């Protein structure tokens, strides 16, 4: 499942198609030379044209960057934490500065007892799209244990956290999720910021609208995973800093 958050919740069959050796040799992945090593994904091209991010020798790793996200449901102010996830912040700012997130739709809302998030960042709106590159995880180490998990392995992704969606280890791209209710997850998703109070009100509004039913939704039950009823379009994702992401 490309870029989807909960591979632990959804089974997916993958069919491998063999490519001619000459084609594989003609288009090897490109890798940036800095510490983040952003790597192109020729087999998973960008849904919108965008270059690999800058990858300086010393990735900015202190301080925070504010980002204003203007949506049709209200403002989503974000604060990105460079110290917590410098490569992730560098990539997010790169994409935002180039308009990659503008005029996109948040394609997924979940309402599981242990997973309450709004997922965005795919211009195709399918949950399958990305920027044509991937980069390594910067996993959290200080999240508190999830009280509902008897194994002690899961952690609480608290209301207001901003994190990357992925399709497995080191497959971060453009898709991200914002947590509107405390969630219990394995610590496999990079946390790189928080959502401001105005953004939490926006998320509550979207969540209160519910989730569109699908053909798989049992009759008489409320769906817990799918497109939000209150369609959430990101008109503009604007970093509030000079030259960041450039």
From TrEMBL:
Catalytic activity: [protein]-peptidylproline (omega=180) = [protein]-peptidylproline (omega=0)
Membrane-traversing stretches: none
PROSITE patterns attached to this UniProt entry: CSA_PPIASE_2 (PS50072)
UniProt GO MF annotations: peptidyl-prolyl cis-trans isomerase activity
Signal peptide coordinates: 1-23
Sequence ranges assigned to domain PPIase cyclophilin-type in this UniProt record: 74-218
Annotated EC: 5.2.1.8
Residues covered by region (Disordered): 26-63, 128-153
Keyword annotations: Isomerase, Rotamase, Signal
Compositionally biased intervals (Basic and acidic residues): 54-63
Similarity comment: Belongs to the cyclophilin-type PPIase family.
Function: PPIases accelerate the folding of proteins. It catalyzes the cis-trans isomerization of proline imidic peptide bonds in oligopeptides.
Protein name: Peptidyl-prolyl cis-trans isomerase
Organism, scientific name: Amycolatopsis rubida
Organism ancestry: Bacteria, Bacillati, Actinomycetota, Actinomycetes, Pseudonocardiales
